Amino acid sequence: MEILSLDALLDVVGELFSDEVSIVVSNTEEYLYYRSSKRVDLKIKPGDPVREGTIAYKALLRNQKVSEFISRDLFGVPYHGMAVPFHKDGKLVGCVTAIYPAYTNGKSVVTVKTNDGWIPVPFADVKYIEVKDRKTYVVADGFSGTHKNSLQNFEFLLPRESFVRCHRSFIVNVHHIKEIFPDTHSTFVLSMNDGTRIPVSQSYSSYFRKLLDF
After folding, report:
1. What residues make up the domain containing 57?
2. Spatial distance between the Cα atoms of 145 and 143, rounded to a whole number of angstroms
């Protein structure tokens, strides 16, 4: 049996976890391989130096497995990670890092800006979130308002059992979906309970189906 190349092997490993986990491989100085997940993308490129303060940096510095939370200050998004150093002939040569989404606990509302001020909206009342004209709109029962967060930030804030990213411009609350219709061979249209129709793009369709189990 022919042995897979390193890149091919890492692609297979990454495919196993691509919905939830990003995979990073580095030597002692720079990143060699990166595969992002649907849930978190640190926008690392092969050849970028291993940044001080990251999970990989700490694992290499301590020459041991590291697992901890990293704030948004480094890559613009918070994440949990685990990095394991590896050796060749007894010498430290690099590490493999798994990046997990950082789910925010303790919050139960989205505070939406309106023309008159701000309204705290319970998660359950949020129907969907849309990015349009470079603004993020939170749509709830009877009104909508804007928020400073990007959709990527909302992916970490909102409870994953209720909210699903279905398009580069939309996150939907599954409890407000009335029906799901096929659109093309691999995409769907969501009919929300307020009459809004929201697309599920091809890049999110398999992830969307997996989370809703259909």
Report:
1. 6-101
2. 7
